[in-house]
Amino acid sequence: MKLIAKPHFARLWMIIFFTGLSMVSNAASSVAAKIGDNFGGGVVYYVDGSGQHGLIASKTDLRGHSYGKDEGLFTWNDAKTGCNKLVSNGYRDWFLPNLWQLNQLYRNRVAVGGFAASFYWSSSESTAGDAWLQYFRNGGKYQYNEADANRVRAVRTF
Question: Where are the beta strands (DSSP E) in 70-157?
């Protein structure tokens, strides 16, 4: 037995099919972001070659402080913990950037904004008891004792 679709049914099916395809392709292309865009709860500061993935920085430095330190200053362990516990703009997957990610943030600091001319922690350890940080006045990278207190900017991926 041979089934023959009525012309209006076939036309309706094709309209639904092609509409669905266009929705999928539009959704995929809408993820593309540029450096400086407000996106994903912060500001985009790095985009990979595909334009679909990258890094987002929180709009402000981490608030609070380590015990006995001034506001905005954290020991290395408290910096990691503070970023991991951060819930900002509905996102809770923030983390302390590694040294490469922090350097990308320094390179695009003007697009993100709000940085002090100060030292910022990375999650990268150099030796036992020391970790890397970057000086946002001149871009220098230094090893400091993890008990020292420095500024922190949380990041997340997209």
Answer: 119-127, 130-135, 141-145, 155-157
Tell me, what's the pLDDT at 22?
45
- Dump pLDDT digits (tens) for 5-41: 455 555 555 555 555 544 443 444 456 899 999 999 9
How many CB atoms are closer than 10 A to CB 143?
A: 14
**Hey, what's the torsion of the CAs at 139, 158, 47, 24, to 10 degrees?**
-170
Q: Does domain 34-157 have CATH number 3.10.100?
A: yes
Q: Tell me, what's the pLDDT at 4? A: 55
Q: Is 109 helix (H, G, I), strand (E, B) or coil?
A: helix
Residue 93: C-alpha distances to residues 16, 19, 82, 109 (Å) = 37, 34, 12, 21
Residue extents of the structural domains in the chain: 34-157
Instruction: Please choose, from the candidates 126, 143, 155, 152, the residue with its C-alpha nearest in 3D space to the C-alpha of residue 69.
Output: 152
Helix (H) or strand (E) holding 47: strand 42-47
Distance in angstroms (rounded) separating the CA atoms of residues 119 and 26:
41
